[in-house]
Write a structure and sequence with these properties.
It is built from 18 helices and eleven strands. Residues 1-11 have low confidence and may be disordered. It is globular, with a radius of gyration of 27 Å. By secondary structure, it is α/β, with parallel strands linked by helices.
């Protein structure tokens, strides 16, 4: 028994290392590339060594040197299609049927893309090799993804939630428990003194905040999550939000040790005291210029390429419902200024005669064509015109209507912070959140984008948006 326990104690860290690697996109991508390369080589070997049904003869080995191999298109299509179908996401909650379907469609489209490339370039290539490659690649990816999912499902992170107030900790724990397949086990909370507050029977109060070190050791905690609550600093930042949108201010803090270690922030020295500058956003001159150049170039190309689509959609809208093709709507943009947002009309005419209201699931006001456009977010495409005019950017917080923006400003602390930058066609809240995500949580996504802005982050969000659009999902 002692030997078995000792072996388990030694093996457990290695098991955690393996699970950590399997949750890393770079590791999974590397294996995907290896599977694709082996599938490609195996297809050639089988075709050259085995006489297959419906083919006349063995493939001469000389054909390998005579064929132009798609070494560039092959890995790009492999990675892109796997990404589009969400196979680099956390697969623990993905059902087996969905996983098989996603991998099958990704492999089928890759075979279709390779075949099309040979056809368009008039390259001679053995068709049976492509078919064999598709089959081998499908089998390899299925085995690999099911293995990854099984290993991740074995790993559970033991979490301790810490908060000054019990109510804040309980709220976070309840939110975590709504997602039981995420691989998180909330062991309990450390918050306040626990006196005079009623806890749900499913949540255990393990001690006070001052006892965290002992709790971590006693319960073998793997991860700590701080549950924050509203403070006087939130109130001050909220009161400064509108001023900052119109007149950018530098804001810095004299940090505690906790505030230094929680993130990568810009440091400033004031005499002998280290300050941290918390204002970092894409309104800095060079970042603003680069972002605008990218917006103009991309929106111009996008409008040219989508011109045929605009024509087809316009005809469908006019043929299926009364009203105009486009719908103009007042939205709140940079520094709280209003502008007219352009969309394809997806609702019946005079849909808001009774006043402004949020769209709902299965909204009866949405037309048949409009439902398809909304599902794949194609109704947003005319906003490329807003980007070209300078009212919007490709990436940024989604602009709200004036009435809703005023309501959120009154009840959501810090909401005006999102008006420091131009609104976007897509944003972090759109690719990470859901349609019914609370305004408070969407704001956190928006602020995370604003204060961690980089050009590479914009590219990642655009790629994530393509995935959401092609899969017909998202907020």
């Amino acid at each position: 028994m002692e030997a078995a326990a000792s072996h388990h104690a030694v093996a457990q860290p290695w098991q955690k290392v393996g699970q950590s690697l399997l949750s890393t996109t770079a590791c999974i991508l590397a294996v995907d590339m290896g599977i694709g390369a082996l599938a490609y080589l195996a297809a050639w070997i089988v075709r050259m060594q085995i006489r297959l049904p419906l083919v006349q003869d063995l493939l001469p080995q000389e054909r390998w040197d005579a064929v132009g191999h798609p070494w560039i298109l092959f890995p790009l299509s492999q990675a892109f299609l796997i990404f589009v179908f969400g196979l680099y996401d956390d697969l623990r909650q993905t059902r087996s049927r969905e996983l098989v379907g996603q991998i099958f469609i990704a492999c089928f489209l890759q075979v279709l893309a390779l075949t099309s490339s040979f056809y368009l370039t008039n390259e001679v290539f053995p068709r049976t090799v492509i078919v064999l490659f598709g089959g081998f690649n499908l089998a390899g990816l299925l085995v690999w993804r099911f293995y990854v999912r099984a290993r991740l499902q074995e790993g559970v992170r033991r979490v301790l939630v810490i908060s000054e107030k019990v109510s804040a900790a309980v709220k976070l724990v309840e939110e975590i428990n709504q997602n039981p397949g995420a691989g998180i086990e909330v062991v309990g909370i450390a918050a306040g003194n626990g006196e005079g507050e009623t806890l749900p029977s499913t949540i255990q109060h393990l001690g006070q905040v001052s006892e965290c070190s002992e709790i971590v050791s006693r319960y073998q905690i793997d991860e700590i999550i701080f549950a924050s609550q509203r403070s006087w600093k939130d109130e001050v930042l909220n009161s400064l939000s509108q001023i900052q949108a119109e007149r950018p201010l530098r804001i810095a803090i004299l940090p505690s040790v906790y505030e230094i270690v929680i993130g990568r922030l810009r440091h400033i020295n004031l005499q002998d005291s280290p300050l941290i500058e918390v204002r970092r956003n894409p309104r800095e001159p060079f970042a603003r210029f680069a972002k605008r150049v990218f917006d103009i170039g991309t929106s111009s190309i996008g409008l040219v390429l989508s011109a045929p689509f605009f024509l087809v959609v316009s005809i469908l809208i006019l043929a299926t419902s009364r009203g105009s093709v486009f719908y103009l709507q007042d939205r709140v943009g940079l520094a709280g200024r209003e502008f007219r947002l352009i969309k394809f009309r997806t609702m019946v005419r005079n849909a808001e005669q009774s006043g402004e209201q949020f769209a709902e699931r299965n909204d009866p006001r949405v037309t048949g064509v409009g439902a398809v456009l909304r599902r794949f977010r194609m109704d947003e495409l005319p906003q490329l015109i807003n980007v070209l005019m300078g009212d919007m950017s490709l990436v940024g917080p989604r602009p709200e209507r004036p009435r809703f923006a005023n309501d959120f400003t009154e009840r959501v602390p810090g909401y005006n912070e999102r008006h420091k930058v131009k609104p976007g066609i897509t944003g972090l809240a759109q690719v990470r959140g859901y349609y019914h995500t609370a305004a408070e949580n969407k704001l956190k996504y928006d602020l995370a984008y604003i204060y961690n802005y980089s050009f590479s982050l914009d590219l990642i969000i655009i790629l994530e948006t393509i995935k959401v659009v092609l899969r017909g999902k998202g907020s």
